[in-house]
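BUG: 3D viewer hangs when loading the predicted structure for this chain

Environment: internal workstation, default settings.
Expected: structure renders.
Actual: progress bar stalls at 90%.

Input used:
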Amino acid sequence: MLAGNGLFCPLLGFASCAVFIYMTLGDLKFFFREPKMEFVRRNGTQFVEGGKEFYVNGWNSYWLMDQAVEEYSRPRVTKMLHAGAKMGLTVCRTWAFNDAGYNALQLKPGEFDERVFK
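Structure tokens produced before the viewer hung:
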């Protein structure tokens, strides 16, 4: 069908180029500017964020740091944070320690793995 009208070779060439480009550049990540985020501060006995009162309402997820390290499990962390935000929760408390060993945050005293901090 395509071979009869001479389109087979050009289409095969185009498809081969597309596959080659995807295989070569497909895992590139594009980085966009992060939105400006305020830190929560204290004003007397009140927490404030960006000049507005901030109320702590949250949950515990001990596993977040460990799951955030690996590329394949990072979407689980994002889904959990989005689910919390949808429920109106403002704070997630997680553990931030893991010394030596698998996905260690602190490789040795005073030396940290930046990949784990992200």
